Amino acid sequence: MNAVNKTLYIPLFGKAEVSRKGIIIKDPKAEEIWKQEGFALHGKAKSRWLAYYMAMRARVFDEWTKNQLQKYPEAIILHIGCGMDSRVERINAFERIWYDIDYPSVIQERMQYFTESDNYRMLSADASDIKWINGLEKGKEAIVIMEGISMYLTNEELGSLFLALQSQFANVLLLMDSYTVFGAKASRFKNPVNDVGAKIVSGIDYPEVLEQNERIHFAGELDMTPSGLVDELSAFEQIFFRLMFAGKAAKRIYRLYEYKIIK
Q1: Cα–Cα distance between 136 and 158 in angstroms, integer?
Q2: Where are the domains of the chain?
C-alpha cells in the first residue's frame, strides 16, 4: 500500500479500540480486522484521544447514512474511500445496493474480510479518476459517503467528482469531512497521518466553493463530536476531549459538510 492507503489503519484502530471498550460505536469487524492485521502505528496515530475522535466521526456518518436510507429507500450507496470500514455491517444495510470503493490494493485486502453479494459490491477505483462513475447505473438517487478522503483530493478534483455524480444520478446526498486551509497547512507539521507516511493534504475554508452550478448545494454543517457521544467518556476524558477536539479551536482545523446535488 502507498502512504495514503496506509492512513486507513488509523480509523480502523480507533474503531476497534473504542468498540473493545464498549463505548461510542460497536464494531466487532474492526476488532477482528485489527487483531488480524496488526499494522504498527506510532505516536499520535495510536493515541486514545484520536481513537475516540475517529469512533465519533464514524458514528456520526453512520447515523447520517441511516437517516438518508430511511428518506430515500430506492437510493444506492457509494462509500468512496471505504478503507477497511464495516459501515454496511454496522448499520445492517446489506439489502441495499451498496458500493464500497477504494484503491485496488485496499479492495484486495478487504476481500479477505468481506464477501460480495447481489447487493453489496467492492469496486477498485481512484476517486480522483472519475471514469469509474460511468460504469454505475444511471438515473438513480445516490447516497455518497466520503469519510477521511476529501483531504487527499484537490478542490479541482472534488469539483470534477461532484459534476460527475450530478451527471450520473437523479439526485445525490453527500457527506464529507474536510480540513480547513489552515488545518491542511498545519497538518504538514503535526498530523497523525504523517506517522504512516502521508504528507500532502488539501483544505476548504468555504464549503460553497464546490457549488459550481445551481444544482450543487452546500446543505449545512454537522457536529463531528456530539455531546451525547462525548458523555460516554470518563469525567476527566470529557473535559480534556471537549477542550482539545470539540471546541472552536478544533473547528479551525476540521469540519463536516453535507451537500445536495440535484437534477
Answers
A1: 19
A2: 60-262
Q: Identify the sign of the CA torsion 136, 138, 142, 148.
A: positive
Q: Percentage of the chain with pLDDT > 70?
A: 89
Q: pLDDT tens for residues 30-76? A: 999 988 876 655 455 567 898 999 999 999 999 999 999 999 999 99
Phi, psi of 54 (to 5 degrees): -60, -40
Residue 257: which residues within 8 A CB-CB, separation 6 or more? 175, 176, 177, 178, 204, 207, 218, 220, 221, 222
CATH 3.40.50.300 for the 60-262 domain, yes or no: no
Q: Which residue has the cell 459550481?
A: 212
Cβ burial 3-12 (10 Å sphere, 16+ → b, else e):
ebbbbbbbbb
Residues 16-43: pLDDT tens digits? 999 999 999 999 999 999 888 766 554 5
**The total number of residues written for the chain in this structure:** 263
- Letter for the amino acid at 212? Q
Q: What is the 3-state secondary structure (H, E, C) of the chain?
A: CCHHHHCCHHHHHHHHHHHHHCCCCCCHHHHHHHHHHCCCCCHHHHCHHHHHHHHHHHHHHHHHHHHHHHHCCCCEEEEECCCCCCHHHHCCCCCCCEEEEECHHHHHHHCCCCCCCCCEEEEECCCCCHHHHHHCCCCCEEEEEECCCHHHCCHHHHHHHHHHHHHHCCEEEEEEEEECHHHHHHHCCCCHHHHHCCCCCCECCCHHHHCCCCCEEEEEECCCCCHHHHCCCCHHHHHHHHHHHCCHHHHCCEEEEEEEEEC
